[in-house]
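stage 2 :: seqdesign
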C-alpha cells in the first residue's frame, strides 16, 4: 500500500471519529505511577519525568511496570517505534498478572512487531484469561501511518463487561464478556507493562529474520502516560478503598472511550476492513468451534482463509489493482500477464 493511499485512509478514519470526545485523563510523571522493570541502564527518563525511552542493544532490552495493580481501567500512552531495520524486535504495551498468577494469569497486549528495512511494522492485540495462552485471541493489523515518524496514542480499556483496544481515537477491536467465556475473560488485577526485547525466534516471518545489532540501539519512546483504574492491594488482591474505585469508574466515564458510538463503530469496521490481516475468530483450523465471544461479520469472514489469515495480502491486492489499471491503458502489457 503506497503512501498516498495510507494518507487517504488515515484522513478517512480520523473523520469518522471527529465528533468523539478526546481522551480526557490526567497524564502522570514516571515516578508517580511507574518503576523500571529490567535493563535499568536502558530506561532513559526525561528531565521532567514525563517522557521515557526504552532501548534494546546487545546488552539487554528494557522495560517498566506500574507501581500498582488495577482491577479494570484505562491504560494509555503516546508511543513512537524504532525505525530502519527492526526485524526480530518487539515493543509491547500490555497489562498482565503473570508475576502473581503463574499458571492462571490474565493479559491484554499491544505487541508491535518489527520488520526488515523498508517493510511496515505490524501490531498484534492479544487477550488471555486465566492462563488460556493455548486459547489466545490474537488479531494482527497493519497500520495506516508510519509509527516510527511520530507519536500515536495506543489505549487499552478494560472493564467488567468489555475490552476495547484503541489506536488514537479509533477503536480497532472490542471483546464483550459472555457467560460462555467463563474464566477466559480477564478478571484478576493486573499491572501495566512497557517493554522492548529480542524476539528473533518468532517475531518476523516466524523467526526467519533476526535482530541485527548493527542497527542498535533500537529505541522506543513513551510519552503522556495515562493510567486510570481501581487500585488494589498487591497482597490481598482487593481494592484499596471503595472511594478509590468509585472515583476511577467516574474518571473512566469521562474519557469518552467506554462507549462505542455509531461513528466509532463505523470507524472500527473501516479500520478492520483495511488493515486486519489475521483474526482468531476466523481461524477454524485452530478453533473448529467458534470462540464464545466472537461476533462473526460475514463481510470480514469472506476475506479470510480457514487459517484466519487474509486470502490475499494488502500488498498483493494493491499491486494487482495497479497492474489491472495499467493494462487498461497499455494493451501491450496484456501479453506479459
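stage 2 :: out
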Amino acid at each position: 500500500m503506497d503512501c498516498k493511499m495510507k494518507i487517504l485512509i488515515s484522513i478517512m478514519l480520523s473523520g469518522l471519529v471527529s465528533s468523539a470526545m478526546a481522551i480526557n485523563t490526567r497524564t502522570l510523571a514516571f515516578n508517580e505511577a511507574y518503576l523500571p522493570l529490567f535493563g535499568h541502564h536502558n530506561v532513559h527518563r526525561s528531565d521532567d519525568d514525563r517522557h521515557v525511552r526504552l532501548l534494546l542493544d546487545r546488552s539487554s532490552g528494557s522495560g517498566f511496570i506500574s507501581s500498582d495493580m488495577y482491577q479494570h481501567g484505562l491504560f494509555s500512552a503516546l508511543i513512537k517505534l524504532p525505525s530502519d531495520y527492526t526485524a526480530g524486535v518487539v515493543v509491547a504495551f500490555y497489562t498482565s498478572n503473570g508475576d502473581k498468577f503463574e499458571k492462571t494469569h490474565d493479559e491484554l497486549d499491544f505487541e508491535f512487531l518489527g520488520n526488515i528495512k523498508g517493510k511496515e511494522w505490524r501490531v498484534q492485540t492479544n487477550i488471555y484469561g486465566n492462563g488460556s495462552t493455548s486459547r489466545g485471541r490474537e488479531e494482527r493489523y497493519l497500520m495506516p501511518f508510519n509509527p516510527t515518524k511520530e507519536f500515536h496514542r495506543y489505549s487499552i480499556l478494560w472493564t467488567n463487561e468489555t475490552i476495547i483496544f484503541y489506536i488514537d481515537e479509533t477503536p480497532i477491536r472490542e471483546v464483550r464478556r459472555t457467560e460462555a467465556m467463563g474464566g477466559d475473560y480477564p478478571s484478576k488485577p493486573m499491572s501495566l507493562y512497557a517493554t522492548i526485547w529480542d524476539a528473533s525466534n518468532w517475531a518476523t516471518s516466524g523467526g526467519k529474520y533476526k535482530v541485527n545489532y548493527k542497527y542498535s540501539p533500537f529505541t522506543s519512546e513513551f510519552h503522556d502516560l495515562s493510567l486510570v483504574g481501581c487500585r488494589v492491594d498487591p497482597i490481598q488482591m482487593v481494592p484499596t478503598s471503595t472511594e478509590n474505585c468509585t472515583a476511577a469508574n467516574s474518571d473512566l466515564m469521562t474519557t469518552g472511550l467506554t462507549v462505542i458510538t455509531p461513528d466509532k463503530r463505523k470507524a472500527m469496521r473501516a479500520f478492520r476492513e483495511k488493515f486486519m490481516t489475521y483474526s482468531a475468530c476466523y481461524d477454524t483450523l485452530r478453533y473448529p468451534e467458534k470462540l464464545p465471544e466472537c461476533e462473526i461479520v460475514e463481510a470480514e469472514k469472506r476475506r479470510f482463509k480457514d487459517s484466519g489469515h487474509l486470502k490475499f495480502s494488502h500488498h498483493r491486492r494493491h499491486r494487482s489493482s495497479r497492474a489491472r489499471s495499467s493494462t487498461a491503458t497499455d494493451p501491450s502489457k496484456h501479453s506479459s500477464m
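stage 3 :: structure notes
- The radius of gyration is 21 Å.
- The chain has six helices and 16 strands.
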